[in-house]
Amino acid sequence: MFMAGDTKYIGGPIPSDLKDKIDAQVEECGWKIGRVVVGMAKLWAGLPLSIQARLVNQSLDSESFIDLVQQIVDQRIEEGRKAGQAIVERQKRKPGPKGRSS
After folding, report:
1. How many angstroms separate the Cα of 2 from the Cα of each of 34, 35, 39?
2. Following DSSP, what letter does each residue of 54-89 receive, concatenated?
3. pLDDT of 12-49, one tens digit each?
4. Contact (CB, 8 A) for 44 and 52
């Protein structure tokens, strides 16, 4: 979490309908706009540059973005599954006490 004295402001013009949608969601959920902006900034900062470029150039709509996020999640899950399998395989080959296989 950030400290109150350790903050900077960020801003820029956005389409009115998008601002209205964000305001309605923030109000409906009882969130603080500052926390929402921090969440948006963290999401942005964590995206690969190629995706940031597509968003800046507006060549990625929200539906395409959701599909892209799903692909990234699926890829990370598969990488984690493979890493887990590799650990299990190494443990199977690891000798037990006094040189016996476990």
Report:
1. 11, 10, 12
2. HHHTT-S-HHHHHHHHHHHHHHHHHHHHHHHHHHHH
3. 999 999 999 999 999 999 999 999 999 999 988 988 88
4. yes
What sign for the dihedral angle of Cα 9, 60, 43, 16? positive
pLDDT tens, position by position, 63-91: 887 888 888 888 889 999 999 998 998 88
Show the tokens assigned to 78.
């598969």
- Tell me if residue 31 falls in helix, strand or coil: coil
Q: Is the separation of the CB atoms in 23 and 31 below 8 Å?
A: no
Contact 10, 41 (CB under 8 A): yes
Every domain of the chain and the residues it spans: 61-95
Structure tokens at 42: 């963290």
| Count of CA atoms in the C-beta half-sphere (13 A) of 39 | 8
CA–CA distance, 54 with 65 (Å, rounded to integer): 10
